[in-house]
Structure formats: structure tokens, C-alpha cells
Amino acid sequence: MAITKVWIEEGCTGCGLSEAICPDVFKMDGEAYVIDGVDFSKYEKDIIEAAESCPVEVIKYS
Q1: What is residue 35's DSSP assignment?
Q2: CA of 1: how far to CAs of 4, 23, 28, 60, 62, in Å?
Q3: Residue 9: which residues within 8 A CB-CB, separation 6 or more?
Q4: What does the pLDDT read at residue 59?
Q5: Ramachandran region, residue 47 (left: φ > 0; alpha: ψ -120 to 50; beta: rest)
Q6: What does pTM read for this prediction?
Q7: What does the pLDDT average to over 1-26?
Q8: Residue 8, phi then psi, degrees to nearest 5
Q9: Measured distance CA(18)–CA(34) in Å, rounded
Q10: DSSP-derived pairing of the beta strands 6-8 and 26-29
Q11: Which pLDDT value is given to residue 57?
């Protein structure tokens, strides 16, 4: 299954893990956000790692 959508639900604590794991998809500005226009298929392994590493489990993908 190819990842075509990535989002961050309410509740991000701004720990910085997502950006540290996958800086081509996630950026921090108080809270993490997903960079617009990214080809998620190039970063699937890192997106999954970021989602699984999120301490509050707010990183989602489909």
C-alpha cells in the first residue's frame, strides 16, 4: 500500500521526533506539521517510523 496522505491530529506536544526522523515530510513550528506537496511514496519507511515513534500517537497516514 502506497502512502498518499499524511496528517497530524490535534494533541501534538512538539517533541520534534517527527522532524528528526523525517525532515523531508515534517517540520516544527511550535507543533509539527506536514510539508505541502511532498511525494510521500519516497519517504514511506520514515513516515511509518515517525508515526510509530510519536509519543502521543497523533501522526496518521493512509
Answers
A1: P
A2: 9, 22, 27, 14, 8
A3: 58, 59, 60
A4: 98
A5: alpha
A6: 0.94
A7: 96
A8: -120, 120
A9: 10
A10: unpaired
A11: 98
- Yes or no: say if 20 and 57 are a contact pair by the CB < 8 Å rule: no
Predicted confidence (pLDDT) per residue in 15-54, tens digit: 999 999 999 999 999 889 999 999 999 999 999 999 999 9
CA distances from 27 to 1, 44, 55 (A): 24, 16, 17
pLDDT at 30: 86
Terminal-to-terminal C-alpha distance of the chain: 8
For the chain, which domains are there? 6-61 (3.30.70.20)
